Amino acid sequence: MDDRDITSLAVAFQKGDEGSFTQLVNALTRALIATAYRYTGDWEWARDLTQETWIAVHDRIRRYDPARSFRAWLFSVHRNACLSHLRRAWVRLETTPGDEVIDGLPTAHHGGNPEEDLERREFHQRLLSALGELSESQRVVFARMVLEQEDQNTVAHDLGIKPTTVRTTLHFARKRLAAVLRQSEETP
Amino acid sequence: MKQKVDCDVFQEQLDALLESRLPDAGMEQLRLHAAACSGCAMQLRVHEHLTVPSLSELESQVPDELAGSVVTRVQAQISTHQGSSQPTRSTWRGWNRFVPTLAAATLLLFVGSGLLFLQVRQLREQEAVLVRQVTEQGRRLAQLDARTTMDPVARAASLAGRSLWERALERRSSVTVSELERMLQGAPASTTIFSATESENLSETLPRWMAGLVRDALSSIRTDDGIQVGELLHVVQALDIDTERRIPTSRILSVSRQAARLGNS
Q1: What is the tens place of the pLDDT at every residue in B101-113?
Q2: Sign of torsion, CA A87 A173 A37 A44?
Q3: A100 part of contact set with chain B, CB < 8 Å
Q4: What is the pTM of this model?
């Protein structure tokens, strides 16, 4: 389903067609879960955030501007949910690697090695904490460029800054993250 | 100086890698530099941790039952939403300069919960752990059926929590916004303060003009699963309240108790 079809469904939903909303959910849920997984490193959180996004979209569909790409709008709503998730200190403090695994669900990335999987999860938790050390603008740029693999010019346009500023901000964010992670390795 | 140049080149190569335009030779150079520079090595590790597999590959790895459960949950939750009336939201814009002490007090009502949990953690750590577990369970139950079946566990946790923080507030005549914010930041953010019904009833305890204001302030968070400490912190930080504003605790307590009475009735 291309962007135009998706936007058409969104417009139909905006006019009251609930069936179109269901089609949108069916078509885009996997992409949303994959993106949320990038943020959380956890399938269950990814599911909850995706659910939260769809409910928000359902509630706020009147605010959607049909002149814009629905997919872009949807992912901006999703991004806000994911970034809010990152801001919640309790995620970093209370989620222990392995606690949130759904029984029977495969975990992405690993090759069936539990030790590697655990190491990945621990690193991801430290990475989430380190993201909290970035400034808001660094966090947004890093999330859009690295987690969502968005184009530099798109990010620059949306944020109203120059592409070179996006790149510089990304560089600062990477360096800051690396510094915080290295520090956390030295002081376990 | 040589190291500086190499690190700058490394950044450019990492950009190219991000955009999938780094040739094999560049990749080799990137790894050579990372092997000799621990800072850049960590950047490369972060990059690979977050971008491998690609989003499209990751999308194909999403378990079918997980995607299916989202569809089912969303439909169920929307059905529940449609069965209840939606509150009318008034315009937030323009009200900022009219925010009176009582509006701030209402928001601080939520923030003040931090007082409670700091003390509980210090004095009765074991009890706080149990409340957190109960509340988490309540949150999951509330997601399944937030409106039709108000989960008694989360409700009990919120009542117990409110009772304790009210006692904490009674010991003081007033508090500032910054004091309460600091305390909230130190509290377990997932703890439910108000159940969904109590959250709705809260606005009914206020004058009509203020009820709309509060609803708008809360519209950026989900209240159908109750209101948690972390959400309240988010709301407060989104508002431009003078952090040195001092609020009489009697006003906070008055609103809190009235909301609790309505919630119980």
Answers
A1: 666 766 676 677 6
A2: negative
A3: no
A4: 0.56
The Cα B203–Cα B207 span in angstroms is 8
Burial of A111 (0-12, 13-18, 19+ CB in 10 A): exposed
How does DSSP assign A16-81, residue by residue? Answer: T-HHHHHHHHHHHHHHHHHHHHHHHS-HHHHHHHHHHHHHHHHHHGGG--TTS-HHHHHHHHHHHH
Q: Which of B46, B55, B77 sits opposite A149 (nearest CB)?
A: B55
B70·A51 Cβ contact <8 A:
yes
B55 near A38, Cβ under 8 Å? yes
Residue B235 has which token pair? 């709301």
Residue B71 to residue B175: CA distance in whole angstroms? 45
Please calculate the CA angle B76-A75-A60 and round it to the nearest 5 degrees.
Answer: 55
Cα A108 from Cα B256, distance rounded (Å): 46
Tens of pLDDT, residues B163-191: 666 666 677 777 777 777 766 666 666 66
The predicted-structure confidence for B117-129, as pLDDT tens digits, reads as follows: 666 666 777 777 7
CA-to-CA distance for A184 and A181, rounded, in angstroms? 5
Say if residues B110 and B181 touch (Cβ distance below 8 Å).
Answer: no
- Structural domains of chain A in order of their starting residue, each with its CATH number: 1-107 (1.10.1740.10)
C-alpha B154: how far from chain center: 16
Is residue A53 packed enough to be buried (19+ CB in 10 Å), middle (13-18) or exposed (0-12)? buried
Interface of A with B in 148-167 (CB under 8 A): 148-149, 152, 167
Contact A47 B69 (CB under 8 A): yes
CA distance A11 to A84: 27
Residues of B in contact with A61 (CB under 8 A): none
Interatomic CA distance for residues B89 and B180, integer angstroms: 27
**CA–CA gap between residue B63 and residue B57 (Å, rounded):** 12
Phi, psi angle pair for A101, to nearest 5°: -75, 135
Q: What letter represents residue B106's amino acid?
A: T
Give the whole-angstrom CA distance, residue B20 versus residue B27. Answer: 11
B59–A30: do the CB atoms touch at under 8 Å? yes
Rounded to an integer, what is the distance from CA A84 to the centroid of its chain?
10
Determine contact, residues B259/B162, Cβ cutoff 8 Å: no
